[in-house]
User: What shape does this take?
Amino acid sequence: MLSLNLLSACAWILLLRRALATPLPDDLQTRGGSGPYQLVSLRIEGLTSTIYEAPIISNPRNVTTASGGTHLCNGQNLDANPQPGATPTTALDAASKLPKFGFPFDGTFQTQFDDFFITSIGDSTNNDDQFWGLLVNFQFTPVGGCQFETKTNDKVLWAFDAFNAQYFLELSGPKAGVKGEELEVRVVDGTTGTPVEGASVGGATTNATGYASITPAKIGLLQLKATKTGSVRSNRLDVIVA
Assistant: This one.
């Protein structure tokens, strides 16, 4: 018989999938990069922990920071796009305002780029050697966070100390497993697809091909993230263990 923990985990995941699969109301429909609202996968990796990792819906909007003031952020900043759209910075702003999951962030506004320069998110603040960086689908954006328009299901990553990172870890593996039986996961550099050796995940260490074997010790929802010194930690992998 399935345990209550496993049933709870299954129910949570089913509800999340149902919510994400349910069409939005007409006024919230996603319309590619040109529509007013956009659903993306947002991840914010701070110095010591993950600040946020979940889907988020955002739209072109005024963004306000203590250091930069209030400015329109809609993808048309510095005439970057012909139509307004949601951006990585509007996703950041929307997530910061979520009840119970919100977080502070700040940034100056650079008039020459018509864009915000993010200086702090959560408890991680820029210093002389470490800065926040922005990647979409594991690639650095060529323009600022208010100029770049996102597309549906883009993977938006705000990463602290991004410009000194050796790797941007990407973790993959099965979504289900069995207690006491090995499951295999893999870690690669998301920017290149190159296997990463020596990454830690679930108490195991990846080999030269990026693989590691993990044996779940209990039934329920197993949440895994890969880490490696000098690299940005990975996305979360959720595994249902029966």
